[in-house]
Amino acid sequence: MARPYSLDLRQRAEVLLDAGESIRTMGAALEVAPSTVPEWARLRRKTGGLAPGRMGGHVPRRIRDGHGAWLLERLATPFTLRQLVAELAGRGLRLAWRTVWTFVHEARLSFKKKR
């Protein structure tokens, strides 16, 4: 699992940056990508420190409660994802078709046409 670089490494980069080292030299010396060093410099200018920000987090589902129950009932009849998106927009919930697809997929429903 990914995790942020240590604060010690960030502080060593800060010292080298203040000493006037080039970005590529610093990247090679610290064994980090050259694009990482300017990001740390930008972070220092913006926040005044080098502490890493929070990573990850839970993104709550957009389709839930009443909309989710309605959609499960609606899925019993033939549908297309774009139709469902339009119907949900009519009910006051604007979503991307991918969000509806994810809901249908998690409900283990198929939207393939029967021939």
Poorly predicted ranges: none
Structural class, by secondary structure, is: mainly alpha
Measured between the Cα atoms of the first and last residue, the distance is 45 Å
In the residues, how many domains can be counted?
A: 2
β-strand amount: under 5%
Helix content: 40-55%
Q: Biggest β-sheet: count, sense, barrel?
A: none
The Cα radius of gyration reads 24 Å
Beta strands, count: 0
Q: What is the averaged pLDDT score?
A: 88
Count every helix, treating DSSP H or I runs of 4 or more residues as helices.
6
Query: What is the H-and-E element order?
Result: HHHHHH
Shape label: elongated
Description:
- With 115 residues, the protein is mainly α.
- It has 2 domains: 7-47; 65-106.
- It has 6 helices and no strands.
- Helix 5 (81-90) crosses helix 6.
- The chain starts with 6 loop residues before the first helix and ends in a 9-residue tail after the last helix.
- The mean pLDDT is 88.
